[in-house]
Each structure stands twice: as C-alpha cells, then as structure tokens.
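Morning!

As promised:
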Amino acid sequence: MIRTRKTEPLTWIVGHAPDRKSVPERFVPATVPGAVQLDMARAEGYPDYNRADNYRRMTWMEDRFFTYRAEFDAPGLGQDRQLWFVSKGIDYRYEIRLNDTLLLAREGMFAPVEIDLTPHLHPRNRLEILLFPVPKRAGMPDDRTQASASVKPAVGYGWDWHPRLVPLGIWDETGLQIRRRSHLREVDVVYTLDDDLSGADLRIESRGAECEECRGVWELFDDRGRCAARAEGAVGQPLAARLENPRLWWTHDHGEPVLYTSRYTLRDAAGCDLECVEERIGFRRIRLVMNEGAWSEPAGFPKTRSAAPAQVELNGRRIFAKGSNWVCPELFPGTVDAARYETLIGIAAETHFNMLRSWGGGIVNKDAFFECCDRRGIMVWQEFPLSCNCYPDDPEYLAVLEREAAAIIRRLRRHPSLAVWCGGNELFNNWSGMTDQSLPLRLLNALCYRLSPEIPFNATSPLNGMAHGHYLFRWQGKDVFRMMNGSRFTAYTEFGIPGISPREVLEGIIPAEELFPPRPGTAWEEHHAFGAWDGDPSTWLGLPTLARYFPPAETLDELIAQSSLLQGEGYKAVFEEARRQKPYCSMALNWCFDEPWPAAANNSLVAYPAVLKPAIAEVRRACRPLCASARFARFDWKEDETFEAEVWILNDVFARTGPFVVTVTLRAGRAEERILRWESPSVEPNRNTAGPTARFRLPAWDTDRFGVELSVEGHPEMNACYTLMYRRSPRKRRCTSMNVTE
Amino acid sequence: MIRTRKTEPLTWIVGHAPDRKSVPERFVPATVPGAVQLDMARAEGYPDYNRADNYRRMTWMEDRFFTYRAEFDAPGLGQDRQLWFVSKGIDYRYEIRLNDTLLLAREGMFAPVEIDLTPHLHPRNRLEILLFPVPKRAGMPDDRTQASASVKPAVGYGWDWHPRLVPLGIWDETGLQIRRRSHLREVDVVYTLDDDLSGADLRIESRGAECEECRGVWELFDDRGRCAARAEGAVGQPLAARLENPRLWWTHDHGEPVLYTSRYTLRDAAGCDLECVEERIGFRRIRLVMNEGAWSEPAGFPKTRSAAPAQVELNGRRIFAKGSNWVCPELFPGTVDAARYETLIGIAAETHFNMLRSWGGGIVNKDAFFECCDRRGIMVWQEFPLSCNCYPDDPEYLAVLEREAAAIIRRLRRHPSLAVWCGGNELFNNWSGMTDQSLPLRLLNALCYRLSPEIPFNATSPLNGMAHGHYLFRWQGKDVFRMMNGSRFTAYTEFGIPGISPREVLEGIIPAEELFPPRPGTAWEEHHAFGAWDGDPSTWLGLPTLARYFPPAETLDELIAQSSLLQGEGYKAVFEEARRQKPYCSMALNWCFDEPWPAAANNSLVAYPAVLKPAIAEVRRACRPLCASARFARFDWKEDETFEAEVWILNDVFARTGPFVVTVTLRAGRAEERILRWESPSVEPNRNTAGPTARFRLPAWDTDRFGVELSVEGHPEMNACYTLMYRRSPRKRRCTSMNVTE
C-alpha cells in the first residue's frame, strides 16, 4: 500500500538495564529497523556472529530490558495537522512513552503501531520504547518450548539449522508522520469474481476519515495505466464498482501475474485532493479442492473421512504446486530489505517454483516479500507464527494471538500471491501436541473466516492425506527413491535432503584449521553439521551415508562433491516422484529453500546469503513444466542386476503436446548403452504420460557410478539425466578386474 | 429455563393456498405445536399415516402456502405492560402479520421469535403466520439434495428409514406473553472450573432489562435447596461469584448428574421482585483429548498428521462413550413432548448408554430433551442440521445458517449434557462432498468458538481416525465379527445391524394379507424392508443374509426370531469389540437408537414408538460397565474346525476389582463342554484385561447353532453368553447323521 504520506525516520539510541525500572547507564547508536543485539554488537565491537560460535556473545541480552530513545523538536502543525508515531513492527513486548507519558503497552511484533502524539507534544520531545526481555514460557527449558505461550517466532529459540538467538527490537519501518486531522486509516478493496471469471464486483471501504463533506474517489488502472473502473461517493460509505473481463493474475508458469492499481483519493468539498492510498490488486480465484481420486478413498467399512483437500485450483485450473519452504533469510528480520527478497524470490522463480510455504516457525514477512511474490507470480502459503509447540488455551495468549493474527490478515489479504492461510507448522503431530480442539487454531480459523473467507485455511501442515519428511537421503535401510516410490500422499509440503554448503560459505564460518576433515566439537557442529536434528549425530553432514556410497573423501572439495551429488539426485528423485503421483498428488515443497545464516550442512537449496548449492540445478530440472523423467527403484545398483528405469513425460502445461521420441542411454565411464527408444503418444494437457520400463542387465563396468540419460528427439530442453551408483559384484571383481583395479 | 412469565396459547386455524398472495378458501382447526400436514389430515379424515403407504396422501402439501390464523382481544395492559408474541420454533420460512401489518419475515425453524405486539394492537386482533412451501434447492431431484441450501433437516426429504414427508408448521411452544416494559431477555451463567475442579468462578450476565434503578440478584441453590453462592448488582452489569467444591455433574454410569439451580431475580428500587429466571446448571469439564496410542501414529516418513481426538474426558476422567444415534422419534417434531423424550432417554440409560449422538439429518431437539439428558446423566453429541449434502458457500445460505446456528448454540450451551458440537453428518465423505474449506463448516466452527468455546467442536463425523459403518451383518464375504476384528479406529460413531420389527409393530403397518412372506412391492417395501439403502435390494430385511445362516422361515415369528438373533449377536459383537479396542478406541455409538415411524426392518434398537427390539437386551449386556466378553473370529463354525474364543474382562469402572474366575462353556443342544477355566488377575481401574484364548475342536453336533457361556464365579451379573452358528461337515453329515436328519 502506497500512501502519499511519508514516514520520517528518527535518530535512535539504545541502552539496556537489568530491570524494568532502571534507566540504562549508557546508550549507543541504534539502527532502525534492526535489532538491539546488532546495535550492541556494533558498539561493543563483537566479531561477525555468522562465524564459528560468535553468536553466543549475544546470549546475555535475552534477559535485559532495552530502551530505545529518540529526541525531536515538535514540528509546526497548525490547526489541521497532527503528528503521528507509526511503526510496522516492534519486537516483542514493549511500552511506548513520550516525555514520560505512557502511550501504549503491548505484546506482539506484528500489529502495527499508530499513535497520535499531538496532544502530548512539547517543544522538545523524548520518545522512548521500553522493550521487555525475550518472552519465555515459565518452567520450560532453553529451547523452542519457551516460545509456546507467545506470538514470537519459535525459530529464534534454536532449531536444527538456526542458532539460539532471539531477536529483539524495532524490525520494520518506523518513524513520524504528519497527517491531516481528517485522514484515511484504511482502504479495503474486496472483489467477487463471477463464477465464470468474466467479471468482478468490487466493494471499496474506507475507514478513518472523519470528514463529512469529503468524498472518496476510487479508480482502478490496468497494467498499461488505463482506467478500468471508477466509483465515487461520500467518505465512509462503501463504494461499489464492476470490472468486466479482468485480466487474471496467474503464477508465472501458467500465465502472467497481472496487477492492477487501485487508487482511493480523499477529496474535500472544494474538490481538492487531500490524500490518496494506492495498492496493487490482482484478480484471481484460489481454492483448495479435492485431489483427483481422493474422494474414492477410503474404501470399505468401517469408513473414516476422505483426505483434506490439497489441490490448488487457480482461476479454475488445477495446478501442481512446486516450490519450497521459505525461512527468514536473516537471523535478524530487521535487516531484511526488498532487494534481499527480490534476489531470493527471483531464484525461486528461475527454479520453476510457483509456491513458497512461509513456514510458521519464522516471522511473517514484510510487505516487500508479498509485493515481490505478487509481481513474480509466486503463490504464498502463509502460516501464522505457531510451530512445533503446544500453544495453550489460555485467555492471555489467545488475546495476543487474536490481535496479532488480525493485523497479519488485514495486512496480507490484499495480495494476490496469498494462496493459503495455515495455522502453523506440524501442530497435529506428537512433538507439538495440539489437536482440532485447540483454541488457538479455532481462533485462527474464525479470524480468517471473518476477515479473509475467500482464501483457503488449513489448521496446520500436514493435514490428513498430506505429509512431511523424510529429511535424509537414507533412513532405516531405505533410500529416498524407495521411500518416495512407496508413498502415496496428496501433498508433500516438506521433504529434505541435506547437502553441504559451498566452499566459499564454509570458509566464511569455519576456521581454516578446522575445515578438513569435519569433526564434531568444531565450528562444523555449531553450524549444524553434527547432531543437529532429532538426536541423530550424523545430521546434517551425513558422513555415514556418504561412507555408504563413496570412498572416504580426501579433500574438502571431494566431500563437497559427494554431498552435493546426493542432495541433487535425492531432491530430483522426490520432486519427480511427487509429480509422477499427480493428479492424486498436487504439491511438492521441499524443506527448505534458503537459510538465515550460513549452515555447514542443511536441507536448504540456497546457502546464506544467496549462494546456490549445486542441488538447485537438479531441482530446476525436476520442476520444468514439461520434461522427461525416469523412476528408479533405488540409488545404488550392482553388476548383473537387471536395472530398470520407468520412463515418463511429466507435463504441467495446459496444452496438448508431442508426440515425442525418447531414448534412454546409460553411460559408465566410456561405455555407452542405448537401452530404450520410446515413441510416446501425444501428451494431454496437464497430464503426465507413463511410458515403458527399460530393462538392462548391468555388465562389468570399471566405475562407481553411471549416468542415465533421457533424450527427447528435437527437444533437448526436455532431456533428463541422473547419476546412480554402481558396484562390481565381489566375486567378479576378483576374477575379471584384478589387473585393472587391484 | 423457567421464567415466572407464562406463555398463553392461542387458538389457531390453518388453511392453504396455491400462491403467496391468495387467501386460503377454507380454514380448519390447528393444533399448536404440531404440523400443518397433521391438521389437514385430521380435517380431511386421512387414515393413519404410519400404516402402509398412507403418508403419500400428504405429499401435495409440500408446495402449498399455508396460513395460520389466530384471533384475540387486546388485554388490558396499562402503562407498564407489553404484549409479546413468542415462539420457540416455526418451520420453515414464514411471515408474521398482525392486523395485516408485516412484523417479521424470516427463514429458519430454530431461531426463536419474540415480537412486541403492543404498538400494533387493536381491540380485536388477527395474527397470521404465512408459511412458504417446503424449501427445495433449485434443480435438484426429489431427494435429500433438495435440502442442501437451507437449514431444514434433510431427513424429511426421504431417507432409508424415513418416508418422504417434510414437516411444516409451528413445531414448538408458541403464544402470547404479557411482560413488564422492563423485562429480562436473557440471563447467561458462564463458569470456569479451576484446573483441579475444586472451585468455579461464575459470571452472570443479564440482558434486556432497561431499568436503571433495578438490581439483579443471583442465587445458586444446590440439589438440596441450600444457597451455595450469591451475587447482586446493578442490572446489566455482569455479576461475579465463586463456588467452592462444586459437586460435579457426571454421567449416570460414573457418578451422579448433579444439578444446581441458578435463579436470577430482577428487583426494583423498592426491593420488590419483578421477575425471575431459573435454570438448572451442572458443573463439569468436558474435553476431547487424544486417544491413547494415537500420538504414536503415524510411524515412518513421509508422515501425515495424527488422528483427531475422540476420547471424552469428563472432569479429568477418560471415559468410554457408549451409546447410540438419536433421531427424532416422530415424523412431525411438533408432536414430540417431554414424556416421549423421558421414555426413550430412560431406555437409553437402562441400556448403559452414556452418550447420544443427535444426528445432523434431523432436528435439534426441544428443550425437554436436554433437560432430561441433564437429569439422567447422558452426554449429547449435538450436530447442526447438515447431513449428506454439499451445503454451499453462498452468502444467502450462510446468513440463514449463522442466525439459526447462533440461536441453537445460545439455547443449548447452558446444558451440562451438551458434550460435543458437530457440524453435521458425514460431510467429508464423497456422498456429501464438503471439505475442510467449506464455508458453512468454517462458520459453525467460528460461531461455536465465539459462543461456546468450552465445548469441543468437530467439523463432522467421522473425522480422521473415527469411522462410520458398516450397516449390515455381512458385507463382501465378511461378517461383522471379521469386519470389526480387523478394524482399528478411535471412535465408532455409527455402525448398524438391521433387525426386523416386533410383530405388534408389523401388524400395525402392514395389511394382514401382506404380512407373510414379506415381498417387495408391498407395505414391507414402503417401510424399508426392501431396497431401502444404497441400491441394495436386501436392505433392511436382509433375506439373503438370513438365508445364508438359517433354513427358510416358515412363519413370521420364525423370521422375526432369525432376524432378531443376527441383530442382537451382531450388535453385541460390535459394541464388545469396540470396547476391547479401548483405550485406542473410546467411543461406540450404534446407528440408530429409535425411529420416527414404524419401520418393518431397520438398524434401530427401539421400534416406533418405543417398542424394544430383542437386540437391545444384547446391547445392554455388551455395555455393562464390568463384564466378561469373548472375541470370535466369525459367526459361523463347522464341525472339525478348531473353535477359538479370546476371553476378556471389560471394565469401564474407575476402581480396581477382581480377581475373577471365568469359565467358558459351549452348549449345543444337550451337549455341554467346558473348554476353559481362567483365573484372572485383578482388574485395573478403567482397563480391560485380556485373558487366554480357549480352543476346542468342534465335534459332530446335531444342531445348527451353539451357545458360548462365560461364567464369572460369584458374579453372575458379569456373565456373558453368545449364540453362534454351526454346521456339520458335508462328508461327515452323510456318514454319521443320515439316520437322524436325512
């Protein structure tokens, strides 16, 4: 939302004290938006918190009371003007005072602050924000459970890819505004598309302008600046308008993310424009509908319910959601700006992703995130800040959640990229312990119903029929190929394969003497390479899994190559298998896209701050709208076994295409075997085509891996390739290879 | 709720016309509450609609406009009095006029009507209620789908045990009230129990009394008439009170359904009592919590959510819910009175039932139903009137649903028997087609959250983990024993075994010449004996299933005995198996308890109007809080097979008991074989005890059935007995029995 009013920043200083009543002994310059930890670290000369275990230097700040202070002279206002203090986000519990008068006491980082300072102004003024310590639920250990009675993102309390570092401070745009006495507080534009999408009825409501003689003029401009609709009326009265043949907003892979501009102008009795509010609007209808085939399950009796719907229907089109789980790209959200969002979301779009799940363990992003997704045509599955905890039915918590969630909904509902509201992450699994009866989730459903009924709402992820995990290449004797081939779910909204970070990232966080070989107890461990997750000492570097497939790495680069191969082939296997399970399956979102600090190893595709891991190239291939694909029973093969590759053409495009000629070739060292030529039928719109299974008895090769190449004649952009592991059979190795390898 | 004001009935007449504008040509006396169909049938001398196909005589009334009319003289009111028209229910869409002035136009049978007639009174007055025809969703065939855009119970549109007969008319208490200008509209008493249930904080809110100088006096009396708490204050101000050590409300099988009396008195400035509102209150905490073991599922990855919680926790105690599905005991709910509820609920209590699921296909019962359940200690799972349809997201429907549902919630939430709110019946299965995203269900969740957050809410039944069905003794080659033994669900909220009605019921509905043998195309079919359900011509009489187990019945009484045996043994099998699956399973509610008209065959336990079927005696045995039980692999056995009986002691009592000595005896004709003696350990509170499996090779018996008796030494009240089928092996039969049977 763009207003003609401007927010003037203030110059802040910050200090801390051990209790609420004490005045800080010393103030240091503060960057706003930012975080108190960053201000203190700068003042104290702390080393880079991303490196080694330096972040621990900030731990002491969790339990301090911080005070932000800004001084300013009262501006000349005249009769018709007011001075407002506004903030889009102060994290977390705080009191705001002007010249020692308490103006606001509040808990919650998402509800915006708007305070008319005018009645309290002196010629010289001191504005103070007292921040309370990090909220911690009483009686809980130093982990995420401390976040379980507040609307504070849980991730900061420590996660398997996030150090314990809980941000505090002013984290979004904040400053002073001069406003007319009669000014707009809010303009809402709500539309209802015709069933056939051929037109839209619009309702425009403005609030706040207490100006009886004023009028509101509303105009809608298309993306070429032409006025497409207009309405005018008394301020405070809802306006109605009609738009014929709207150009619809589509995800980038299915069309154009068309945006209109809505402009509401407050006009006084003399016809002078006082103020205007502008926002981008996209016309689209988004639904979650039943997955194909899901209604016919369960069969038999006694019979339970069918699965929860997980199929995105955008503008009447059932589209496969490909994407990833978004986490805040910084430990301190206050430092994230539009350019940062732009870079990362650009990478997502280039990876053929059309959905990001904004995970409930983290913050709800700033406006720029959604503006970027609107523009780039990427859907957002937006969770409320609840994750992996049992949030209580307490009235105090519910009151904070209600205010925060309502503010989140009012802020985001205008964005066409907003595709799904979700109560939070994994709340209906045992490590969280919430249920359909939990009042926080019933409250969120009620709020979304009241404030944003046209957007689907899921209580949590996963719901029945949907699934999370696994997060390893190999688990309980099964590799990711077997795990996925044996699964049948409507939506894979989380799945991960760990991969090491690129060398440049590792060198930035791990002291040179610790770099190789990686060992527990070093910066590798601080950065999640060992014992990061679920009590498994091998997470996330996965040395035992690497050892299963590869000889011991002799250099860091070799280790990086091994880990990257598994991550790339593993992720490709999951994305492609999820796509092959279409139409029953409708979603594949890997865990996770980015990361908030440089992990040594992580499930992420993009290392901090925006370094592409090799695996993302494989994911990009797996997510091409139209491509060849092969299903394999497993990752590692042996001499004399009959290798099998089930050949597919994956198609998410809404056009008939083909026929194609696909050949399957194996490459092992210098050996090359063409094992199949398939003349496919033509490919139906938005339907995959299953082809034949190629079979080939694996000969004696002098290699530890082989490539499988699917070539599509005349369509190299559809080609696919895979790397699989190979082993000679021990007996044969003795007989035939002695001269060569031993 | 008892008020000191009295509702004076009016004398009504009723007539009909083909359209909205026409005045009925003729009026006939009307019984209020009742139904227009009954008034017309009486006036026209129609024969008993319960017999044969006589109900079809009423079909023409569906599409007529009916007008109720009552005339009355204005009473002397003076300055301080008003005359109100009040009704607890008018079915379905109507307009109310006084002396031709339109006072109310409304759709919905549940929201009460309260209209101040005073400003419109003449010396002589004519009150008219114009009823619109039966609501039918446009474009739908003549079945339940016609009910899918209104808050009209779907059952009247035809069900497998209900004829097509859609009631219309004034169906609950209706008449005139003289009120003071300053009168109470509503008194709400809300309590919060301490976590340990040792005390309750009460908040009392009154609405409506516009009387600044008046005071409200609230008193709480225990069941011995002693004042237990008291508060007093200005009218309109909430009162607060505290009750220490409340005696808790329990279901009849776990304690006493203790009720207190709340009395709110409106007192004028002079200290005179103007009016009082009394209601019964029970103190209890009801929750749905996770079933034991349900958190550990699913295992493995990819992992979906855990089951929805279905375990009732009453006052901190996890109790097994045993009961049945309640349907309106009359085709015309207007004719149901307190005595009728009393009789039926009394039978439920005697059957050891502690829960009734008030099914969403029917009406929400009158106050007397809930008052009786409060008193008898039976929990009510209350559904909103949505069933087996896809109710739309239309704003018009949602507006009616919101008003109706809010009225239902406000009326019922005060009852301690109210245990679960539920959006409706089987809405997440394919024959309905609603999903978690359906706005009607999100609205109901939101309303219940706002108005009744302390009561659990389920969007529908079944949810994941819970199950409905089967409804037959045998299906796809499996009998009910095999179906149930192979199932694992948290709650069986519907399951049925059909049974024929007792002879007295059959004689009342089927002409003598059609009575035996039953044939399609006769009154048997009108009364659901053939082709009633799901395209299955054998429902509900089940002749092919009877033929599988029994020789052809030669008399009606023989047929009744065969059918009743299957129903009794089948129901016993399901209830006992569900109990054996405790604690993972926590609920067993059969389909259905009663019936609204005499079915020839039905899943019901009580035939119309309140005739016990033999099966209910078996269900009563299966539901004893403490009893012996045996699990069988199937119903029918053969000579030479090794018969197996897994012996259990089922215990829902919260006390340690036993040890017991259980013997298992088989009886076949005069043969008697004691096949096991088990000395059980002592039985844990609220825990079943699994004993040994008795095995016995079945000898040559000259019988078609045998009995299995479990005797508990010194505790005959715990004994169990079963009847199973037996067949000689064909070869042996030839060799050894030729002389006897052939």
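Chain A has 13 helices and 44 strands.

Hope this helps with the figure draft.
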